[in-house]
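Archive entry. Fields below.
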Amino acid sequence: MRIQPVRLKPNLRVDFVFIACVVSALLFTPQAWGQAPAKDKTKPKTETPPKVHATIELGGQVREIQGGHSAKFQEVRAVPKGFFIQKLKLDFNSEDSPYFLAMKGTEILERDQRFNVDGGRFGKYRTQFVWDQIPHFFGTGQSFLQKTAPGVYQVSPTLRASLQALTLPDTVRTPPNAALPTLVRQELRTAPMTDVRLRRDQAIFRQSYQPSDKVELHAQFSWLRNRGSRPMSAGTFVRRPVPANGLPDIGGSWEGIGQEFLEPLDHRTTDLKLGAQFRGERWSAGVDYDLSLFRNRIGSVIFENPFRVTDEQGCLPNPANPAAPICGASNRFREVRWQTDLTPNNDSHTVSFWAKVDLTPQTQVRGLVSLAYWTQNDDFLPWTLNTAIVPRNWDGVSPVNNPTDVKELPASSANAKMRNITQEYALVNRSKNFRFTGQYRSQSLDNQTPTIVFPGYAAFGDSTWRAARTDFYNLPIENLDWDFRRQNVEAGFQWDVLPQLTWKMDYEWEIWNRKFRDVNRNNEHSIRGRLDFETILSGGRKLSEDGKNSSATKEVEPGPLTTLRLKLDYRYSNRRALVYNTQPLSFNANLAGSPPGGVTSAWEVTRFTVMKVGVPMEFNLLRRYDENDRIRNDGSLTLELLRGPSTNFSASYRYLGDEHDKSFYGRLFNRFSFVDAQFQHVFDNGSFLYANYSRETNSFAYRDLAHLLPNPPAPPGTIVQGTLSQYPIANTWERTSRSSLDSFEFGINAAPLEGKLQKWQFDLSYALSFARDRISTVNPFTVRPDSVLHAGANPYPDTVVRRQDVNVVITRRISESLEIGARYWYEPYTQDDFSFNVLQPYTHGNLTSDTPKYLFQDARYASYHANVASVFVRYTF
Amino acid sequence: MLAQPDQKQALPNRLRATTVLLLVVVLVLLFTYSRSAGPPAQAQSTQVSVQHGAAVGERCVSCHRPYVNSFILETHGKSAKFLHDSRAATCETCHGNGDKHIENREKRIAVADIENPTELKTPEERGRANAACLQCHSGDRNHFNWQGSEHDRSDMSCMSCHNVHHAKFAQWALASRERSQLDGPTLDSEEIKFPEKMLAAFTVEETCLRCHTEQRKALFQRSTHLFRTELRNMKVGCASCHNPHGGEGGKMLVNHTVNDVCYTCHAEKRGPFLWDHPPVRENCENCHSPHGSNNPKLLTHRAHLLCQECHIHMLPRHETTAGKPLDIWSINRGCLNCHSQVHGSNHPGGRTFGR
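PREDICTED_STRUCTURE:
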């Protein structure tokens, strides 16, 4: 079989690194071969030769994959066809030498290859090197976008001109069979395909040195590169029509509301860790420094809009006032070029100090403090590349003349800084049958990033200027220096009530203090109780020597030891928010237009509402699940039965339920349950059998609400500008998701110790993972007729994902050092997910705009069947 | 041809930084090797090896030959032979004084005269076994938090996960045991005899999953961190994020917080950004299930359902409806079809994480 040169080329570089490292290691450690240095005259002559173990495994493989979008099979692994080297290993070890060296490579020349080198001298120093590759394959995409430079994607100007010429007036819906979508689909048939993949390469070099048994110094250098591309997108929302009001579907008139492109990645993370640790008779202490530098070599991505050759602003002329065009709801996504900022470079410095002291043989006190400083100061990009946008100076204080010029920005970079201090202290006491643990932990994140107030920014598909006055109820467009402090106080004891029974109790208090979030302070109190019971049912008991003194027991009861273990664990937690901050919306008991007999109440923004700075701009009855009031019940029961060393059965059940305050909107509950059973048995002839089954279920629900559109516009001169939100309670909807996951594994391994088959080994395994997600939505009240389309409940189809894995391996030992084997691997994967089933390079909706008009890469996962067969030879000496 | 977007023009700085780092690494390497390979240390250690080496297992080998033969090739045996300080681990270090045991070796009662850490059953006995290990293995940061850790409070013994004497497994089917579950056909006889880190199972992951059965499901889940190569080699294992010997933070993590662990591999998420997303900064687990998930990208819930639990939107222009399966926020990456920079944005117009 031939190795493809394209695949081989990058690997040659890797091999060079690997070989260089190995050679370096050998040069520095000639003693690794089990020989003492030449100068060492005291070396005994009776030394045994070094033991060298080497293993090489190589073979060949055939592969067949069926399925249209089968990238999932090689999502994070490489399964190549043809010749392979699955392992190469060298190990030098001698009982007469304090030196050691081990080298290992697995899946060599494949995208997921790995090399390890580990050598040194026992008790003195150790050198470790790792080279590891992880691929990530997203599939094959198809697009008009052609990469012309790193981070730049262009579309043929001829095509763009043709498509722009077919654009209909903004007030007219483009039917799916119109000339423009027809041409798009026709052109896409010949658009080039691209494999969308990443590869993460990592090198780690670690060196430790122990000048004595009291001191260790260590250094680690690691380098991680993530390179390739992955799908990313940009878009804007489609506003829905209000069918009962006869309002036009203004979301249906654009050519595309978004586009998927490829995010180019060339990330490097470099880490250097230096540390020292010291120990005494009763204490130990250490200090560590960690420098981490993240660098992104491609700072932004620019792509061209296939539908445009000229920039256009998202406004329509206003005959009544030509100076104030009507903007926002038209001509979206009509820029020629879009630019997205990619992850900025960042630096991190961390210093840690730790120490512990054994006050008495039973009592230990310890502490750890870690100070980290994170910074980021990448230059800002301009607001937009759309030259047609004319920012309107609503406030009259911050005019922006040219939003494509970075000089008009209020700052050239964020100068972002965060200081993160973590602390951990503990007191532990152990007596004969009682143990106590007290612990305090904290994380204090101090955001020192300066606040920058922006006069506005380009929005609505990069086609209109958005300002605080029109779109944020006069709240300034600024980054807030929000931060937090989390503290945990824990105390617990364990008491061996009986030799077979242990009782444990723990109490925990978690405190969150936050700035500029919904909840400034949370308190959560938890109490946890555990009972561990273990008893010998038969065999293995110590028999009394004289029948009087139990401490003098000597003999052991014959027969296999049968042990029963039971564990009961329950935790109750109660989290409370001191105050939940909300915006001051007004309650309206009888919202105009409410149908008779229905729910008439609503919350609304009025023209006089004064919004609060630093409080999220959300519906005032919303309670976010990571901060709101919550009761948590977490309990489990585990049973384990062991019969001798050969048979093991265990079963467990766990329930974890979060109950949130159900009188508000947001998450209502989130409940997990898990049950599993495992069985393992080793037969007398050496065969091994195992079977596992588990079932996990998760159900969660949340309450949400569809607000009204169009809202009444605020008249000029009032406090609040723009449209005024109205939240009619009648438009409440509740959604529940119930997902389950069944997992089953079965396997048998037979390696007869004697008889005709003693040179053979058989291995069979089967695994099944079956997941189903069922979503249901209900409206508790009758939805108002003046609501937007889809405000009410709509059914969702089930999502089903099933994966099976069948593995059969047969090996035969030819001689002490030679084995041959064959393997068959079958993996069928089924995925039925409405989120991905509908994707195609260009989606175009029907008249109800159910389907968005969007350009996708269509690099995705779907069902497949994979068959892989291989033969291999293993040579060991 | 368009101009190339804002490239990071810091090549000289990068080269300088790389050079400095490489220099530091080389200096550290040279320093350690020069310090340890000097003649005095060599002579001394060799002398010790002659004197001390003869003693390792000498009194035990006649009855426990397989154990002793493997012991002298392993770290502990080597420490007994070549180190002459508190780190030297002889048979007696873990098994206690064997005088009485040897004295009674012809009788059946000898078994009770020696300490066997693998046979200690009660919490107190396990604590005693652990104390023997902690004599040497407590001075580093890795084992710093063992006392009072979740594993310690579960009365686990070091022997629950480790087994110093693997030679006893060499000849029978334990040689192939559990290979089919995790390790595939890649183990050779040496790896079977000497599993990494003297584990009781053959890999870290198999050791952990014996008790943490709840995480086993992730092996074959739709999205998982426990992904494996075609030969079942795990790339991101349990020990990548957890420290079973105590760890820091609440879940025996390798770093103090969940996010600090995630930033190890995902440093691009560390920022800080102009526009940060507070729940993201507080805890990645607010949205991600790190072991495995039924949803893409390890999300705890399907993308748009997850966003809707926290966002109803007062922003008047953006609708929030129950929606249909083919709405733009229902398909593909859901809300992230437009809000692609949900982890944080550094764009002046990225307030809503759109660019």
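CURATOR_NOTE: Chain A is about 5% helix and 50% strand.
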